[in-house]
Amino acid sequence: MENNLTSPSRYCIAELSTNVLSDFKIILASLQGELKLNDNVFRGVDGFLAKYFKKSDTVQDTIDDAKSADGVDQLSTNIFNIAHLDTLMDWLVDFRSLFFPADPNIPFRFRFSFRCESITTPGPPFSASIYFETEDISTTTGSTRVYGEYHHGDAPDNGFLPFAARALQVFKAQPTRHFLHAFILHGTTLELWVFDRVGAYSSGPIDLAQNPQELFHIMAGYGMMNDKEYGINTFVKCLGPGSDSYISFDEGVPSDTASSSDGDVASDEGTIKKLYLRQEMLAAPGYLVGLGTTCFAASESTTDKPNIVVKFSWRADNTIDEPQLLWKLRERGTSGVVEILGHKDLVSIADLRQDLQFPGPFVNRTLSCIVTSPLGRPIRKFSSISELLGVLGDLAMTIKSLFLNVKMLHRDIAIKNLVIDPQEQRRIRNSIIYQGSYSVDPQGILIDFGAALDLEKGPPPRQIVGSDGFMAIGVLRGEPHTYRHDLESLFYVFLWLAIANDSEHDHAHEILERLPKTSRLQKWRSPDLDFEAVWKAVEADMSPEGFEEILGEFSPDFDPFKDLARKLRGLIFPVQDGVIFTGTDTDEEAAARLCDEMADAFLKEYRRKWYLY
């Protein structure tokens, strides 16, 4: 197999027939940046076979018990000469019949099937994907347990990344799994791989020409694994095909002391022991390496309307401990933020890679399950511009409360992290209109504190944190994050919504695909991480002259709010000596004043729209 993981000349995308090519290109480009040989991709890891195929005696017994030695010999001979998809499928069926015959006494986990898809166009040289799929109806959504590829000996070696990209498709369908077993058989060379949220590692090449029966040891070993050994997240269970999955928590402390619990979910009535997850995910990663954040809507029964969010995420060591921050927010009684109900650490990469000897260090990550409330409506799905203005005003006050009362910065204010509380009467509307005061129970809610910073633990480090398209100019320059940067990002959220008016997409790159190529927002993000080019473009657009060009892109629905946008720009970027000021006044009175002024700007428009409509 090619060692070069980054050479684009090795890609053979045009030969794919089973994947959408545009999606495959995106995945391939992503993996090119994620996976680097001898950084987070390791070949020939010591202990690989001993760890994952330690049932060698049982496997050998299975081989010895096969119906006939002739059948084994015939399978050994045929595997290297397969040139068609039908022939490959026949070989796999024969293998299964020989080694795992239908028998009611066979443990249920051994009942698996194969699915094959052609990678290349019809005709030699032949290549195909092989999927080990479970027949166990009680398992989690997604039946694939192992991904493999068969390449005829005459087929070109297209390198590692296309193989990894196809394996990632399984991760996308099952984003909560811990890891994925995969293999690639090219001619007489077999290599076994494991992919996880840190990278990938392999057994190294295995020469089957010297010992063809080694293939049977491997294939039978895969067939005898249980879900945990396959890398499935067994914390998530399922009652049957098409049914909701669920998670169970141990019995724990009542809700009034829930902040000290680890593994229990608190409600007003006490402790929730079981939560049912809806099949459609609220969020799922399109990448392999990283947090792998996956969110589900959930409820305490299959018939209740979902009102809870269950989030799975792999946090790296020495990074933000989101559950800890959420418990702090709950203890302080902070309004306008998502409320944690419980959490549980499930497993770490170090645990999963135990007994393996790597030639270099790897990043350790811990998978957490975090349960929060409320299940909000994405801010992009505002029911009216009036509602949006009220929500943005709430969020400005939440940023104030976080900084002044809790000593915390969110650091990732973006469309994807802002929701609207589903309880329509959370805002005390009469007091807002007639008294000009905010309800202490806001309708705008901040979620995802995975990048948040607890200032009580020290000053902010110099690092670029945030979402592409929404980061403040100072952050893009590498300056320490401040409360004003969070307000600046909130202002950008308003601008993105006013220009794109996109109710379907959260991320800048998705929104930009539907905007004209001439839109000034096209320069507000950088796929190649050229942050200097981005901050210069944004700074130019925030100048008095450039901002009029931004206003010229407002969608028709937001035309009446151009004066509001000018007001907000003047607050965030006051002109000093003919130049816009992008710094931060760190005085607490100045911080409170700026947050109040920004909230009041939204509030005045909210009042006006309330009277008009």
Automatic annotation (TrEMBL):
Source superkingdom: Eukaryota
Record key words, sorted: Kinase, Transferase
Signal peptide location: none
Short name of any one Pfam family annotated for the protein: Pkinase_fungal
One Gene Ontology molecular-function label: protein kinase activity
Domain Protein kinase: residue ranges: 233-613
Protein name (Swiss-Prot/TrEMBL): Protein kinase-like domain
Top-level taxonomy: Eukaryota, Fungi, Dikarya, Ascomycota, Pezizomycotina
